[in-house]
Amino acid sequence: MHDVRSFRLSWPPTVNHRMSVNRRSGRMYTTGQYREWMASNLKELGNQEDTIKRPVMVDIGLEAPTRRRYDIDNRIKPILDLLTKARVIDDDSLVDRIECHRMEPCKPGRALVRVFEI
């Protein structure tokens, strides 16, 4: 296993704030908060030219903006979606292993992500 890519992302929205339902039509849609976070981080990452098409392990360090309690698992899916959309990995089904851990809080909060090819 070797380190393929490292990224510093802004504090990800929770999976609970990723999607919402239109009350009239009942259709699901991505929230503005999620779309803004995705667009901002896509701009930072740029379009990766060497997309990984093999199994990977993703290591995520979360530096929350405050000491408030939060579930780390709710921050993983948006990060995996971003890695796929930015063409870091071909598809999030390639993620065979995920390690996610809390780090010391720092304002405004961020996620430190490393992708290892297995």
Shape: globular
Number of DSSP strands? 6
Low-confidence stretches: none
If you compute it from the alpha carbons, what radius of gyration comes out, rounded to the nearest whole angstrom? Answer: 15 Å
- By DSSP (H or I, 4+ residues per run), the number of helices equals 2
Determine the N-to-C terminus distance: 5 Å
Helix content: 10-25%
Relative strand content: 25-35%
Structural class: alpha+beta
Following the backbone from N to C, one meets helices and strands in this order, namely EEEHEHEE
Oligomer: single chain
What is the makeup of the main sheet? 4 strands, mixed
Q: Quick check: average pLDDT?
A: 90
Biggest sheet strand order reads 1-6-4-5
Structure description:
The protein is an alpha+beta fold and 118 residues long. It has 2 helices and 6 strands. The strands form 2 sheets. It has a 4-stranded mixed beta sheet, with helices on one face. A two-stranded antiparallel sheet has the order 2-3. The longest helix has 14 residues. The termini are close together. The mean pLDDT is 90.
Please supply descriptive tags for the structure shown above.
alpha+beta; four-stranded mixed beta sheet; 2 helices
Would you kindly provide a brief summary of this structure?
With 118 residues, the chain is α+β, with helices and mostly antiparallel strands. It is built from 2 helices and 6 strands.
Present the secondary structure layout.
Blueprint lengths: L1 E9 L8 E3 L6 E3 L1 H14 L10 E8 L12 H10 L9 E8 L7 E8 L1
Parallel strand pairs: 4-5
Antiparallel strand pairs: 1-6, 2-3, 4-6
